[in-house]
What we know:
This protein has helices at 2-5, 8-22, 335-366; strands at 31-36, 43-49, 60-70, 77-81, 85-89, 96-106, 114-115, 119-123, 136-143, 147-153, 163-169, 177-178, 182-185, 188-195, 205-213, 216-217, 221-225, 231-232, 237-243, 249-254, 265-273, 283-288, 292-295, 303-312, 326-331. It is mainly beta. The strands form 6 sheets. Strands 3, 4, 6, 7 and 8 form a 5-stranded antiparallel β-sheet that branches. Strands 13-14-10-9-18 form a 5-stranded mixed β-sheet, with no helix packed on it. Strand 11 (163-169) and strand 12 form a beta hairpin. The chain is elongated, with a radius of gyration of 40 Å.
Amino acid sequence: MAPWRLPLLPVALLWGWVLASSSPSTVAPPGDLQITDPGLLGSLDVQWKPPPHVQTFNECSVKYKLEYRSSGDRDWKVIFTRKLKFRVGFDLSRTAEVRVQTLLEGKCTGDVEVQSDWIYATFQVAPQGKLESEVQNFHCIYHDWEYLKCTWQPGLLTPRGVHYELYYWYEGLDHTVQCDRYIQEHGINVGCVLQNLSRAEYRDLSVCVNGSAAATLLRPLYSTLRLHNLAKPSAPEQLALSLSAAGELLVAWSPPGGRVPQHCLEYEVQVAEDAGEAAAAWAFVSTQMETALTISRANQSHVSCVRVRGRTNIFCADQGFWSEWTQSCFSVSRKEDKQLFILIPVILSLSISLIIFMLIGQCKKRSPAGKQIPVGH
Length: 377
């Protein structure tokens, strides 16, 4: 067998050299990178053309690496795709930055990934109005996963007769939608309540608050929201305290109502002992997903108050708002109190007996002595 195997070695080396020499070491980048605005409040369309001669790479797969960010962001967001068009979200108050490169891999490259140079493009909306005319303190909370409440304050340069409007869009809507339930102060829209947003959960919700006034340009505010990161549940319900046979405090509660998924909630528990409700010195006890807890009472306090609040946990959101506190107090008798409770009836009985004996003694002293009958002479 060995005599006819030896000649195969140089042939195999020669064939490997031929394959390596025919494998492309470089690939051209995509061409004609463009960014267009379909009018969806920051969701821009990014598209490009394939590199030249891409059809010659029969035994390789061609895909693209898209990176994008708004100017000022430290990190790029990354997408790998075989498509030539993608829709991504940006903050329109800043410059949109995009870069794309070609990735080639397969038999034609010896199963080694070959990357092209980057191509770049930017997009910026022409600024309108002065920066001081933009609304201030824009803030949104997704209450109970049922409705979104956004509020703002008029800009520093607010002319008379200003009128604010809020528009929003998320993937699945054909066009932008205006708020139909505004919150007003002194006749000016300073907030909006949006309902029926379940389809927008875990998606980018693009929002714009635009202002108009006679003969004055106001700068619009753009924001991209993620509802699950803005969620605020109601306070936990049915908080109940009891005492175990070992003298430990047993705490139990129920999840809040509403659409909040119960598996998405975590709870913080705090306790205050020997203090009234107003002056309680609260101490942290636990953060947990369960709805029951046993708390040891090291100092055997007379009154223990417990409060519990909830928020969306890290398995369902990057962040969230704590709910309001649910609070309850539990009174426990001390040993001294029990002893005193036993002594009081004994003391009262002795006191009553003593008073009775004293009264009897006084009556005997006051009664007249018996008269003697005189003897006849």
